[in-house]
Amino acid sequence: MSVNESGDFKLTRRAVLAAGGASAAVTVMPAEAEPVPAPKPATLPLSVTVNGKRRDLTLDTRTTLLDTLREHLGLTGTKKGCDHGQCGACTVIVNGTRINSCLSLAAQHHGDEVTTIEGLGTPDNLHPMQAAFIKHDGYQCGYCTPGQICSAVSVLREIKAGVPSHVQADITAAPTATNIEMRERMSGNICRCGAYSNIAEAMAEVAEARA
Amino acid sequence: MKFDTPAGQNPIDQLKVVGRPTSRVDGPRKTTGTAPYAYERHNVAPNQAYGYILGAGVAKGRIVRMDISEAKAAPGVVAVVTTLDFPAPLPLGLANIAHLFGGAEVAHYHQAIAVVVAETFEQARAASTLIHTEYARAPGKFDLAKEAPDAPLAGGSRGGGSGTPPIDRIGDFAGAFAVAPVKIDRTYTTPGESHAMMEPFATIAAWEGDKLTLWTSNQMIAWSKSSLAKILSVRPENIRLDSPFIGGGFGGKLFVRADAVCAALAAKTARRPVKIAMQRPLMINNATHRPATIQRVQLGANQDGRLTAIAHASTSGNLPDGEPETAVSQTKLFYAAPNRETYMKLARMDLPEGNAMRAPGEAPGLMALEMAMDELAEALNMDPVELRVVNDTQFDPEKPNRPFSERHFVECLRTGAEKFGWSRRNPKPGLVRDGKWLVGMGMAGGFRNNILTKSAARIRLEKGGRLTVETDMTDIGTGTYTILAQTAAEMMGVGLDAVTVVLGDSDFPASAGSGGQWGANNSTAGLYAACLKLREAIAQRLGFNPTDTIFSDGKVTAGGHSVPLADAARGGALVGEDGFDPTDMSKRWQQSTFAAHFVEVAVDSYTGETRIRRMLAVCDAGRILNPKAARSQVIGAMTMGAGAALMEELAVDTRFGLFINHDLAGYEVPVHADIPHQDVIFLDHPDDKSSPMKAKGVGELGLCGVGAAIANAIYNATGVRVRDYPITLDKHLDKLPAIA
Amino acid sequence: MKSFTYERAKTPRDAAAAVARTPGAKFLAGGTNLLDLMKLEIETPTHLVDVQDLKLDRIEPTRDGGLRIGAFVTNTHLAADERVRRDYGVLTRAIVAGASGQLRNKATTAGNLLQRTRCPYFYDPNMPCNKRKPGSGCGAFGGFNRNHSVIGGSSLCICAFPSDMAVAMRVLDATVETVRADGSARSIPIADFHRLPGSQLPVGEFALEPGELIVAVTLPKPIGGRHFYQKVRDRSSYAFALVSVAAVIQRDGTGRVAFGGVAPKPWRVEAAEAALPQGAAAVTAAAFAGAAPRPDNAFKLPLATRALASVIAQAKAEAA
Q1: To the nearest whole angstrom, how far is the Cα of B408 from the nearest Cα of chain A?
Q2: So what's the pLDDT on residue A14?
Q3: Of B152, B288, B357, C107, whose Cβ has the fewest other Cβ atoms within 10 Å?
């Protein structure tokens, strides 16, 4: 059985695919198969302040904040784990709030202030959270680590600011930095090496020092 | 250095640096984002272009035609390389089952069929969707349950340590099982699992004439160098791999994958360096996975709990030329019993490549065996800890004249039971309540072999006194940088800060690499050998007698004479290079690691959701070189085991022949909220048969048995036995207490 | 991702007009779902109109004692609002049960309502999906459908609507306020905002006209009662619901209930709520009459009952 390529093959070939089993010639086309003339990529000038330094860029409109940092500004501390908001490795702090930089266009951040892992501390001048991660071995392969640390710093701020969470018994009460609160709030940062238990302890130490 | 007799007293036994909880030496770089991973190395080669891989849209068949004209004309596109540019598949690398590129045949879904190279990532990605591919789809086999009944017997070896012949028989299993007073005969299933490491497969490839350099993310540098030479038909000496930081592997980066091959091919065509990171939605079907299993365990015991008969059979599927998941291998060694039978069957299937994932064999095998042991304990009305104690063996049960080098499994069990408060467990399931929660405790034994393999290293005493260690060994999060630095510091009598460790470069001496939990012991033993060479060279240069020269506190001392270590390098750097050769030590002694896992869970009596409350692992794994990082390895493995027990499953669409949940939203792995505080206890039993380090592997042990411990705890909580992993709520919901 | 042009509109009306006059244009708010889908070319806008400067980021009281939530208010901001926590607790609870902290910081109120399904067949362009490619079939219907609808779907599409927030809004009888390209305003009851797939192609999804922009969601005045959002999922956090229950239960045992994860829209059957005092089974028997589960997701029906029973038990315990 075969299906010709012209005309109304699409419905038919899907039916063939769904039937499975029998050998069939099929064409899998890109999602939006209608051929469109390729326009020149649109570009956009923008300026972002990253780790206190103003950066002026002209970028393809499609460029995410994540790829802006990694590919255009050489700030590769922010990681690309999934590029789809499913892992948290790309977490950065924008105007004081943590976000997934993979699901944000650079264009959305014209005029914004971005803090990345490189802006929190350096090997010779560690942020207390970075030092606590080292002390408690809150990482293994290190790939999710910058995102974990940016999130951890933000989570303590969010708790202090009273942002509610799923695990609060009383949603109107002020949250506190308990183990389960931190774990729930950190759940958008996946660590496949499984350093969670140690990360919670690193955060607890920083939270206590600040309290 | 030939290691052919048990290690005697040696400088490592001082334990001034080795054996102490040590923060990772690479920590400041990893926590500040300054450790460079493969895709991030902007500075290693100028003018890098971006590659983007297109995966096959069907699971099996042949590509009839590809139209790349639109893609080639797209803005910024530098080159398009398609699989049809090659008349036949490129040769397979080590342990590759399906070809990584080349030819018209499609062996599995999302197999790489084209690479688009462009000036920017955005341009390459957009152009990849402009390639129009026509397939002749062929029928395939995608349903393990359907294929299993006709699957033939098959032996196999997975990850080196879990090799198993197709069938093994000791004594008369059938006869003994038939007359056993108490018996269990159950079937368990485990699903396919994905490594889901956080760093995608990534490579930058650059050619200079005939010479190819790949900055990549790979666990096994020497294997992969020779594999790439074969795949690309390039002389091995013309290939260099560099992989200093690896964002997780878990077995998924043991072998060469499509990113490296596609980057190399694309760089050749584009005549400039090309970088590729495989997009996450492609990874699960493009690469390898842990195959699903159907396992049958039969246990026959006397009333006192002593096993008289053990049988374990496992069926898994794989592509032609693939191997079975060696899920029965631990059953050959774990418990005593005079009558034994283990066998594996392998169904030929067309799903993506099944291959090693952390603790291959043992991880799914123990999920079955240790649940069966729990069922047997209940049938015997015996404590599950005691059942395992009475069936301990100090010898290979298949070869009674072959002892274990060290085996302290009973101590793991006893220590764990005491520390966990096991005596508080109610052996009758389904009776402990905490509000709406049903609470239960479970335990399981853990077992994983200790694999000995060759490993080489080089150490140089630089002018000024610094020590530099060079080996192609990798650190995949295992803490290898740190234990190598500790080893060098201990051997040369200096502090950790006097040592620099450089890893992952194929120009360095070939090491054991990272896999099969063999990395730590073998790579440090290789460095130990190199350090002995350097000590000799230093003594010689200083005119000391090598045999009574002491290296301590930054000084070299002999015959009452003492000089700073740095003095030895005044006349130029000194180098020691050697390797560890374990000869037949692991044949003469069975070398394994042991654990006891204890878990407490709570199951929501309304919704059936399981939440883990406590976890403890007690590990017997020789000398622990760095208790801090080793503990992390174990808790990480326990976390992966929690995923396997509760949520991880590659969902097969048997019509289209793919894992349909092929991203990190669909394939759920544990998150912070799933994992409570975890406890790990290491027993202190150095193993002098394993190496001069007296260490053993520990990175996979933590995963071995933990899934069953969770499952057994769920049963203890609910009274509902689910034998089909993962134990999601839908599998016991209808048997939970009726609601008001 | 297809190439596109980008602009920031200054007023809602300008934004709506810009999208209406540009073929292939879309609004961009947080972008957490749109960019995800654009990377896979499931969404292929030619022009994006960013709405971040429209000043739609406020929560204000309404004259009749309710709240008007700007379309661009982030999920975090909405969940953390003192008034919402106090008077519309089900909404705060639903929002913080969804996604992750990072995503909630970026995702907006309007964007959350406009989330597209997380069905894996929708997400894989090689697979059939009537929502992505009308006429190609429903991959999930005969395939992997554990996470899919048990009611409200059809053989054309059995996707489940993924939002938690919208389930709470459904229980609160929220109203979606929009501006059309011609500048006219419109109010759409949340019950009518999400459309069922139906029996004809293309499958239904949202009750919006081309270029129509959500500017706010209005909550009527508080209804009191105890507020619950129980979300059941395989992992403890950062996962879509298998089943969720949004409920507001009064001291006398009466109340309102809506379910998430079970249908292509937030699932509420007002007539079924009368049975609340009789218990969960009576409610779900009525709410899920005519359910058509697939073999892999039939468990969602007893699960919905049990999750609701859990909520009712909690309400009783708190009231006692």
Answers
A1: 26
A2: 35
A3: B152
Supply the DSSP symbol for B10.
-
Best C46, C52, C100, C130 member to test A by mutation, with max A CBs in 10 Å, is C100
Residues in chain A within 8 Å Cβ distance of C92? 164, 171
Domain boundaries B172-192+290-450+588-735, CATH class: alpha beta
pLDDT in tens, C46-77: 999 999 999 999 999 999 999 999 999 999 99
Q: Å from A111 to nearest chain B CA?
A: 23
The chain B residue lying nearest C298, using CA atoms, is B730
What's the token pair of residue C270? 């007002």
Q: Are B48-138+198-248+253-285 and B453-581 the same fold in CATH? A: yes
**3-state SS, residue A199:** helix
Is B208 among the catalytic positions? no
Q: Which of residues 134-153 of C touch A (CB under 8 A)?
A: 135-137, 139, 142
Task: Say if the ipTM goes beyond 0.95.
Answer: yes
Give B707's contacts (C-beta < 8 A, 6+ positions apart). B363, B366, B367, B444, B641, B642, B644, B645, B725
- Which 3 state secondary structure label does DSSP give B440? strand
Pick the CATH number of B48-138+198-248+253-285 from 3.20.20.80, 3.30.70.1450, 3.90.1150.10, 3.30.365.10: 3.30.365.10
Q: Residue range C219-225: average pLDDT? A: 98
Task: Summarize pLDDT for B678-714 with one digit per residue, the tens.
Answer: 999 999 999 999 999 999 999 999 999 999 999 999 9
Q: Which of B434, B733, B721 is nearest to B609 (CA)?
A: B733
The hierarchical CATH code for the domain B453-581 is: 3.30.365.10
Pairwise CA distance, residues A144 & B31, whole Å: 10
Q: Which residues of A touch C86 (CB under 8 A)?
A: 172
| The model's pTM | 0.96
CB contact (8 A) between residue A86 and residue B665:
yes
pLDDT band for A29, please (50, 70, 90 cuts): very low
Chain B residues inside the 8 Å CB shell of A183: 672-673, 675
Residue B155's alpha-carbon distances to B332, B365, B425, B447, B472, in angstroms, are 14, 15, 40, 20, 31
All domains of chain A in start order, with CATH: 41-120 (3.10.20.30), 121-211 (1.10.150.120)
Using CB atoms, which residue from A28, A102, A164 is nearest to C126?
A: A28
Candidate from B653, B671, B733 with C-beta closest to C236:
B671
How far apart are the CA of B738 and the nearest CA of chain C, in angstroms? 9
Inter-chain touch B663–A179, beta carbons under 8 Å: no
Q: How confident is the model over B568-595, as a mean pLDDT?
A: 97
- A166's CB contacts (< 8 A; 6+ apart) are A184, C93, C96, C97, C231, C237
Enumerate the domain spans of chain B: 48-138+198-248+253-285, 172-192+290-450+588-735, 453-581
User: Residue A41 has what pLDDT?
Assistant: 72
Q: Is residue C219 exposed (0-12), middle (13-18) or buried (19+ Cβ within 10 Å)? A: buried
Q: What does the pLDDT look like over B324-341, one tens digit per residue? A: 999 999 999 999 999 999
Q: Which residues of A touch C35 (CB under 8 A)?
A: 64, 102-105
